[in-house]
Design a protein that fits this description.
Blueprint (H helix, E strand, L loop, with lengths): L7 E6 L1 H18 L5 E7 L3 H8 L6 E10 L11 E5 L9 E9 L3 H11 L5 E9 L12 E5 L5 E2 L15 E4 L14
Parallel strand pairs: 2-3, 2-5, 5-6, 6-7
Antiparallel strand pairs: 1-9, 3-4, 8-9
Helix pairs in contact: 1-2
The structure holds inosinic acid and magnesium ion (MG).
Amino acid sequence: MQTYQEFIQEVLIPEEELHKRVAELGAQISRDYAGQEILLICILRGGVMFLTDLIRTITIPVAIDFMAVSSYGVGKYASDGEVRISLDLKTNVSGRTVILVEDIIDSGHTLNSVLDLLSTRHPKSLDVCTLLDKSERREVEVPVRYCGFTIPNKFVFGYGLDIDEYYRNLPFIGVVDLERYKPIKNNGDC
Ligand code: IMP
Ligand code: MG
């Protein structure tokens, strides 16, 4: 298996910059929702590292829950517009103040489907907080209230984001050089 040094093109966002921006987002959320309790919903698995750092910077009462969605694959590194829920929430979101936490918005299809689904459960409010936004790739418009960084159309990894399920543990966001990356044959994903 390759080490990331064998295929990284550049470090796009270093660790310190991530932490600084995440803290800004946490402070902003704490101000915007002052006096309320919020429920942060993390879309597994890419958003986990962002969520766990983000909640440590939030100063108002916060609960968390998780859901997982899978896209029916056409392109290996892009979603094709159809998603299915593979793990649903434990929490009843009816009447709750909800913020959906995402790692990255690319075409927008994943988020759009999740927002549609959650809206049918009648939350009091439903906002989106994404760490990264590849806005030039957008195929469907999604309302984003909080965004960490707008990034160029490059495949990125680290800080929760995977390539074939690995490299999520890296503390920075890097860009993959797809010429040098050798795909793993069996990543154990289904
Ligand atoms: P969308 O439905 O096209 O917006 O895709 C969103 C999902 O695709 C994200 O939640 C990620 O799981 C994945 N994704 C999109 N771009 C990247 C990337 O550059 N690196 C890693 N995962 C990505
Ligand atoms: Mg994701």
